[in-house]
Amino acid sequence: MYTCANCTVQACGQQTPEKLPQNCPMRNQPLMKEALETYALPENHDFYITASELEALGYCQWPRIKETIQLCLRMGYTKVGLAFCRGLRKEAKIVDQLLRRAGLEVVSVICKTGGIDKEVCGIPAEHKVHPGQFEPMCNPIAQARLLNEQHTQFNIALGLCVGHDSMFYKYSEALVTTLIAKDRVTGHNPAAALYCAEGYFKNRI
Ligand code: SF4
């Protein structure tokens, strides 16, 4: 079992292979070799190199939205998908405008597309946010399928719920990046709860 999160050596970042912990994943050289070869596949090579170059180009200067736009432009994409949460529809409109201003065609699909009540897909009535009322289900599979149907070359996830985002990633044919990770409590900054995990959020996690 690998436990990099608890490693005190971090030999991987220092070119000191003699210091590898016993359970270091780098001891699995066949897997490491196979992973490296996978970056060389035509479907991965340019994307990986371009994404990696972005890190240096905008290091500590470009916000994530600019990195996202630059990735699209440098990859030569012309048509991108935007799968967004209704709760962030204002932000989705801003993202749409910024992408269009950069010359990209944008296909956007809201999470509630379909307008299907949660109970139809088996969510118990008592587990609705407001039991007894019409409450549309989030529909990440439809979001992905609609963007697939539109042949978007790259998709952006904006504020999809935990788990619904997973399903969107699963069914999207195009690669996906997440622009906003939803966190209703921290203004969509999940790291805030981690920074305060031993303090103000201690009893909320
Ligand atoms: S890859 Fe190896 S050296 Fe690097 S953090 Fe994981 S266990 Fe530590």
What does this structure look like?
This protein has 205 residues and is an alpha/beta fold. It folds into two domains: 23-61, no CATH class; 63-204, Rossmann fold (3-Layer(aba) Sandwich). Helix content is 37%, strand content 11%. It has helices at 29-39, 42-57, 64-75, 89-101, 140-149, 164-171, 190-195, and strands at residues 79-84, 105-110, 154-158, 176-180. A four-stranded parallel beta sheet has the order 2-1-3-4, with helices on both faces. Helix 4 (89-101) links the parallel strand 1 (79-84) and strand 2. It binds iron/sulfur cluster. Iron/sulfur cluster binds at residues 4, 7, 9-12, 20-21, 24-26.
> How many separate domains?
2
Roughly what is the average pLDDT, rounded to an integer? Answer: 97
| Sheet with most strands | 4 strands, parallel
Oligomer: single chain
Which ligands appear in the coordinates?
iron/sulfur cluster
Shape descriptor reads: globular
Mind telling me the CATH class of the largest domain? Alpha Beta
Q: How much strand?
A: 5-15%
Unreliable runs: none
SSE series: HHHEHEHEHEH
Radius of gyration: 20 Å
What's the arrangement of strands in the largest beta sheet? 2-1-3-4
In total, how many beta strands? Answer: 4
CATH-defined architecture of the largest domain:
3-Layer(aba) Sandwich
Question: What layout of secondary structure does this protein have?
Answer:
Layout: H1 29-39, H2 42-57, H3 64-75, E1 79-84, H4 89-101, E2 105-110, H5 140-149, E3 154-158, H6 164-171, E4 176-180, H7 190-195
Parallel strand pairs: 1-2, 1-3, 3-4
Helix pairs in contact: 2-3, 5-6
